[in-house]
Fold this sequence. Notes:
- Chain A is of the alpha/beta class.
- The first copy, chain A, has 2 domains: 2-169, NAD(P)-binding Rossmann-like Domain (Rossmann fold, 3-Layer(aba) Sandwich), CATH 3.40.50.720; 174-284, 6-phosphogluconate dehydrogenase C-terminal like domain (6-phosphogluconate dehydrogenase C-terminal fold).
- Chain A is built from 13 helices and 8 strands.
- The longest helix of chain A is centred in the middle third of the chain and has 29 residues, at 171-199.
- The mean pLDDT of chain A is 93.
- At the A-B interface, helix 7, helix 8, helix 9, helix 10 and helix 11 of A face helix 7, helix 8, helix 9, helix 10 and helix 11 of B.
Amino acid sequence: MKVSIIGVGLLGGSFALALREKYPHLEFVGVDKSPVNQKIALAMGIVDEILPLEEALQVAELNVLATPVDIIMQLLPQMLDQLPAGRTVMDLGSTKGLICEIADAHPRRGQFVAVHPMAGTEHSGPGAAFKELLPTKNVIICDSEKSHPDSLALVEAFLHDIGMKVHYMTPTEHDLHLAYVSHLSHISSFALGLTVLEKEKDEKAIFDMASTGFSSTVRLAKSSPQMWAPIFDQNKKNVSRALGDYIKLLKKFKEAIDSEDLDTSLDFMQKANDIGRILAGIEKK
Amino acid sequence: MKVSIIGVGLLGGSFALALREKYPHLEFVGVDKSPVNQKIALAMGIVDEILPLEEALQVAELNVLATPVDIIMQLLPQMLDQLPAGRTVMDLGSTKGLICEIADAHPRRGQFVAVHPMAGTEHSGPGAAFKELLPTKNVIICDSEKSHPDSLALVEAFLHDIGMKVHYMTPTEHDLHLAYVSHLSHISSFALGLTVLEKEKDEKAIFDMASTGFSSTVRLAKSSPQMWAPIFDQNKKNVSRALGDYIKLLKKFKEAIDSEDLDTSLDFMQKANDIGRILAGIEKK
Lengths: 285, 285
């Protein structure tokens, strides 16, 4: 059985490596427009061969669409057009609303499974892939009832067998929650990095004075702009609302600091501390 | 030779543990108003005995003031009042402007060394202390020329011998830089945690959907409010300016998202990516 990975980067590559560990007899076909990514994916043993998309679709039982979300929107209808009966396409995109809308408009909607694994790092490309990225993490399937039972069962079995915890929700729920628990953290981190860079023209000052706390908070600012710009765009209504809420809170905190209102500062931080309980669970995952 | 640790928490405790490893014959005296912290500090072998502050000052060659910065401001003048000739007080506070002003007004200014190690975690208390926290990290001494050469030499020797890299600057420079590379990251993280908590009344949604990226960005939101409220207050001019810069950038980014201006989003993130080069250095430290 063959699985194609379209977009052999961090997520697609890590999914292939985890599947390979579990199913040594699966064969992997890579599709990637970058010749460098092709070479790296072959050299790392992520895929066994590179094929053009059209050919990959003819040989693979499951096609994993793991490109940035703007490319998913372009490729998904084309792929469904060409998909042989009984075969499946799943995506790994960080937004689900527009992608599911596109799928819904296609007569082969049943052969598509909309998937989003809650995992990633600030790195990208096949060189960043590692087989431990996905196992033990949560993964969300949207509109599962719109997928054909066989397509859904295949995807669920793969996700389950590499040790992921499968959750189900609508694309609307997914995009709203993700704006808060993922998209917003990326923006806060990008903005933090840029604020410090614009102020501290002298890099040595950052280097000498930043601690591991800064490093951790700003880690996501290293993430790929090409990947994130279309995510923010596709989820703009929710992201804008989350960002508005965040700015409002920051302004309140600034007012408390400006007016030396230590009680409000303390209250603000004590409430925020509560995230600790929840993080304890996430870190254990 | 005895060293007193006033405020046996994460920083004071970690400093004692690192010194103990290097100088097995040093004796450590703990001063802490919390009976629980006293017991933990003794049980962990951070200190050998607990004494009231007045008595500790009579027996210790070096007194390490490692309380929150508001308590440093209260205790420093009292301690200098009672400090025998030839003895030294150093602090480990995250702000330096007001602390150095208080020291400057005291006739025993020379016996004080103003120190800030660029290290910490989101945890607090003696139970969070570990001997690896400070070694290899940067540490800043402010107004070193105002310290008596013997006091300065003792503190520099200790910092150097536990493997820290010593830098020198004025309190004004210190507080300005720290607002950007440390205080701002804490606020951005507190605000992120609180924004998500206020939105996601259903904790399970956060738990199921947050990834390690969220966890890392929001880690500092677990930090101690009692420690940070006085830091923000003492450094309010710089923190308010840094926070103002941060809010301004976030608004620009929100505008770019709202107006579907992907070029500006991309540009913003590409510039922020540059922090990666600098982080690479910090993480190696």
